[in-house]
Structures are given as C-alpha cells and as structure tokens.
Amino acid sequence: MTSERLQRQIDRLLDEAEKAVSAEDWARVTDLANRVLALDTENGDARGFVALAAGTTAGPSPVGQSPTLASLRVLAV
Predict the structure, then answer these.
(1) Which of 4, 7, 31, 57 has its CA 20 to 30 A from that of 40?
(2) What is the pTM of this model?
(3) Is the pLDDT of residue 7 over 90?
(4) Which residues have a Cβ under 8 Å from the Cβ of 72 and sit 6 or more positions away?
(5) In 3D, which of 37, 38, 36, 26 has the Cα closest to residue 72?
C-alpha cells in the first residue's frame, strides 16, 4: 500500500504529465510517467501516459491528429 506522502508525489507527477500532454511534450510525458511507475509499478494512469506518448512518437495517428486528453482517458480505463 502506498503511503500518503508517496501518493501525493504520484498525484503531483501525474498532474504534471497531464499538463505535458496538453503541451504535446511527449518526452516529458514519458519521463513523468516513468517516474510514477518507479514509485508504483501498477499505476494505470502512468501506464496510459506511457502508451499515449509511445503512440504519438511512432508517427501520426490514423486520423492524422495528435491525441487529446480525452483519448488518454480512454486508454486509462
């Protein structure tokens, strides 16, 4: 079980990753998500961020648009 202190750090890192998604800063998204995974290897949100960032660096999405925060939420479900 994650302590309150670690959970606050995880939440802060995920908030920063969410802002990086909005800025389409995929390297930062990956870095922040990996930092969360170092604290909590099973964190679904962080895994979703990593998958999203990996998908954007692989090339254009099928519809030719960058993923949005809404698409990230779908990945996290």
Answers:
(1) 57
(2) 0.72
(3) yes
(4) 18, 21, 48, 49, 52
(5) 26
For the chain, give every domain's residue range: 4-76
3-state helix, strand, coil in the chain (%, to 5): 70, 0, 30
Residue at token pair 């999203």: 52
- Say whether 15 sits in a helix, a strand or coil: helix
pLDDT value of residue 68: 52
Q: What is the dihedral of CA 7, 11, 13, 19, to 10 degrees?
A: 180
Residue of 22, 75, 20 whose CA lies nearest to 52 = 75
Question: Residue 41 gets which letter from DSSP?
Answer: T
What is the maximal distance between C-alpha atoms in the chain?
A: 42
